[in-house]
Amino acid sequence: MAAHLPCSSPSCILQRLSPLLCAARKAVRGLFADRVSMARFVAHQVIVFVALLLVAIQLVTLVALNWAVSENARESVRKEVDVGRRIFGRVMEDRTQQLTTAASVLASDFGLRQALMSNDHATIVSAMANHAARIGAAKMMLIGLDRRVIGETAAQGNQGERPLFPFPHLIENAERKGAASAIALIDDAPFQLVVVPVLAPVPVAWVMVAFTVDNKLAQDLSLLTGLDVSFATWARGRGWHVAATTLPPPKTSALLGALAPPAGAAVPPISPDLLGADFLLSGSVLGREDNAAVVAILQSSLGAAIARFDGLRVILLALAAFSLCATVVGSLLIARSISRPVSALAEFARRMERGEYDQGPPATRSDELGELAASFNRMRLAIAAREQQIKSMALQDALTGLPNRALFNERLQQAVGLARRLAQPVSVLLIDLNRFKEVNDTLGHHVGDRLLCEVAERLRAVLVRASDTPARLGGDEFAVLLPTASEAMAEATARKILQAFEAPVFVEGRQLDVGGSIGIATFPDHGDDPNVLMSRADAAMYVAKRKRMGCAVYDVAFDTEAESHGRLSLSGELRQAVDEDQLVLYYQPRLDLASGRITGVEALVRWQHPVRGFVPPDQFIPFAEQTGCIREITRWVMGRAFEQCARWRAAGLALEVSINLSARDLLGPELPQRCAELLASHDASPQWFRLEITESALIDDPARALDTVARLHEMGFSLSIDDFGTGYSSLAQLKRLPVAELKIDKSFVIDMARDPDDMTIVRSVIDLAHNMGLSVVAEGVETDEVRQLLCAMGCDYLQGYHICKPLPVTQLEPWLARRGAPHGTTAKET
Amino acid sequence: MAMKKRTLIPARRRDRIANDAIRGLLILSALALPVAPALAGDVRATVRDRDGKPVADAVVVAVPAGGAAGAGNPPGVAEEDQRNKEFVPYVLPVQVGTRVHFPNNDNIRHHVYSFSPPKTFELPLYSGTPTAPVLFDKPGVVILGCNIHDWMVGYIYVSESAHFAKTGADGKATLGGLPGGDYTLRVWHPQLEGSEQATARQLAVPSNGAVDAATTIGLTPDFRARRAPTPGRGGY
């Protein structure tokens, strides 16, 4: 029911409120436009929640009020209509009584009676007209006792047959009660009819007096009842017609529209909800005949009753709007009082994010936010302390306690900066321990670590100046920063360090030689940038190491060397080299002293770098061994060597090809497999090849290495120990190895002519090998003197620049062809 | 106070006084009849309603078969009194040609009128007895009314025959001194249902002796205006 009322449904109210909400949202947005997003979010949430809650409550209130108002209005209108109906009935009754009395009085008028009894029609009609006018009646009719009309005011001079009175029941009623009244239609217009006798003094005739039922009557009744009064007539075949009403024309037509069903045989009933829910009405049939009826309809508009509550509604809406505004403003203030300190805390957090720990959070109140701020402050202090700790850890080498590379770089930078301003020199020493890797590999990391610690101790002992900073850059690489130290001072310090290194180190009862190579670079002579300085020191160190000079001061001449020997540390580059065939195989001939012929060649890998050019093997092989890339290189080498060997054999050149294997190659099962595949694919014999392994190759995992070696041996390959004498291998191990040959390291051979120790070693090795049934190869034969010595010692094979340097196939083949004869003892071509 | 004094006489008693007066008048006229020629018979008429109750104030008329003209005594004078705002008697049968006086015995004025076709007349407001009596020269029923007292109703039955009588409270009336012969006997009453002619019956009246004639009539309800209340008295 309430839904029919103007704007009572929730959706309608929402529609009304939506611009309000929109405006509130805008206001909130505006107020917080300059705030940080988090605070805005909080404020938004608070305000939106409170506003929505309030709107919901007000909606419920409005709906309830609407319902109550509508119910109340309905009830009051129902009562009004009820009262109005009773009043109407009573008024109509009174009116009937009055009219009857008036008619009776009129009928008793002697003059009228005289006129009526005169039998003169014209007199009768004129007297009736006169007397009707006296009481405001519309019509008057004289009826004989035979119920035929004697005369009537409306009729003009009808003297013919007297018609029957059309309302005989009125006469009957009047006979019984002395008077009768009814509302009936005369010529389709409603009239109130009163029939009274003409007494002379007994009834001698009947007089009917008709009063119009018109708008004035309706208005009078409307005034009394407080309702809209309509008189509707119904006639068979003509339907409804509103004869008199207080309604305005549109409502009249609405009423008529509601009333007008197809004209039926009987008067249609008037239902209380004839006009729908907006009106309450009461209909009463005033007069009914066979073919016609007069009905009074009393109605009251529900809308008007509800409209009386409009003021209340407006007040309530205004109150709702005001409370909404007040709430929004209030929650805005509260939200801001929260969001401001939160923003301040957020700003503080951002400062912490940037690492600014010096300032605490802004002092705030003693509420929860203040507590939060205090917690933030404690957090700040804790973080600052921890960061300090972490920083110190980050700048220190955990093993030796020396500054690490980062701190060293920082100090170097500072020192260079200072030196630049003060025009002072700064020197950098770069120290690399000799053979540290071997110590680590053979004796274990803990020994290596102890060694490093000892080195650090000695560095500290040597460096007496507080400003001198020793540092461990990583691995066995140390550096020393010497502010204000000239080149000469730096070199002196370096000598002192080397001196300090000379004393052996005892670890777990072992005596270890430290030894190191030191590169020196000085600012500003060798570079004015810390990075340049370090790379220059590195170059000098490299030279010192290469030349076994102990220490070396940087020289411009080192540059090219350093560059050409630049560390190739990119495994990607090396793998790329394998993939793109940047590697080349060189072959170094081996002279068989017994026959004086070149019976074999050692396959040596070379790298023809597209940018760097030729890269010697000791520049990338150690690195390849570290990264594991050596396996790919070995694969590649074996593939090429097998192919080349097969080609030579096919060409009738019976050269035995030696191939170097690395320690990593021996650890996996792939190598024997690969060898088998290669033999099969080139239709080659294992006797064509000699596989060289170093002593150290067996150290990491002797069992697996020996297993692989044994398998290769079983396959028919002959094995050779490379670089014999430099490692820590034991003779017991040597005994277990199925090798056929020893290769004496070239470091013993090169200087054996001058160094009696080396000669002794070489001789002993040759004797040892022979005694064990092995053949001996001497590498690094560079002079004829050495060749002759070896020859005298009974060495089996010679290899070295004196015989021939490693050559690519294209050069080797002509060389071999030139040499021609199996004997080449005097061949000295290089 | 004067009016109060009048109320000392009870209403019933006063009515009785009036009735006695009427009766006295009738007796006088009846006594006059035996003076007529001998050889006459009587009609002892009884009028009852359908319930068998005797009907008073019914007029029984006997019309000789040969016609009424010339028969009987010349008409005399009669009186229709007005007492206590009533016509007394209520029904006054008279022979055609009778002059009737309308004495006013009330101390207020009356305005006697009649619109009845046999005699339309009017005696404008008067008190006492108008000097000229009213001649009723046509047979029929003349209804008397008073213009200022609506309830006052009186009937003057103007008979063409000289032989008529009015029933008393016992419903009996005697028509005496009728010459023997055939008569048409009719009954009329103010509340008679139907026409008077419908009650007509032939009756042979002996020259000497009496004949009984019982008549049953239907009565309609008495319709009278409401009597206006007088101080100290209730309504009609």
Number of strands of chain A: 26
Structural class of chain B: mainly beta
- Mean pLDDT across all residues of chain B, rounded? 78
Tally of helical segments of chain A: 27
CATH architecture of the largest domain in chain B: Sandwich
Low-confidence stretches of chain A: 1-10, 31-36, 821-830
User: Main sheet of chain B: which strands, in order across?
Assistant: 6-12-11-8-9
Which CATH class of the largest domain in chain A? Answer: Alpha Beta
Count of the domains of chain A: 4
Fold-level CATH name of the largest domain in chain A: TIM Barrel
Helix content percent band of chain A: 40-55%
Oligomer: heterodimer
Note the overall shape of chain A.
rod-shaped
The largest sheet of chain B, given as strand count, sense and whether it forms a barrel, is:
5 strands, mixed
- Count helical runs of chain B: 2
Compact overview of the structure:
The complex is a heterodimer of chains A (830) and B (236). By secondary structure, chain A is an alpha+beta fold.
Explain the overall architecture:
The complex is a heterodimer of chains A (830) and B (236). Chain A is α+β, with helices and mostly antiparallel strands and 830 residues long. Chain A has four domains: 1-105 and 309-332, no CATH class; 106-155 and 164-303, Beta-Lactamase (2-Layer Sandwich); 395-564, Reverse transcriptase/Diguanylate cyclase domain (Alpha-Beta Plaits, 2-Layer Sandwich); 576-819, EAL domain (TIM Barrel), CATH 3.20.20. In chain A, 52% of the residues lie in helices and 20% in strands. Chain A contains 27 helices and 26 strands. An eight-stranded mixed β-barrel of chain A has the order 17-18-20-21-22-23-24-25, surrounded by four helices. A five-stranded antiparallel sheet of chain A has the order 2-1-5-4-3, sandwiched between helices. In chain A, strand 21, helix 22 and strand 22 form a beta-alpha-beta unit. Chain A is rod-shaped, with a radius of gyration of 65 Å. Chain B is globular, with a radius of gyration of 18 Å. Chain B has helices at residues 2-6, 11-32, and strands spanning 40-49, 59-64, 77-79, 81-83, 86-88, 91-95, 98-101, 110-114, 121-126, 134-136, 140-146, 149-159, 163-166, 172-179, 181-188, 201-205, 209-217. Chain B is built from two helices and 17 strands. Chain B is mainly beta. In chain B, the strands form five sheets. In chain B, strands 6-12-11-8-9 form a five-stranded mixed sheet, with no helix packed on it. Chain B folds into two domains: 39-68 and 168-227, Immunoglobulins (Immunoglobulin-like), CATH 2.60.40; 72-160, Cupredoxins -  blue copper proteins (Immunoglobulin-like), CATH 2.60.40. Chain A binds chain B through residues 108, 110, 113-114, 117, 178, 197, 199-204, and chain B through 111, 113-115, 120, 143-147, 150-153, 190, 223-225.
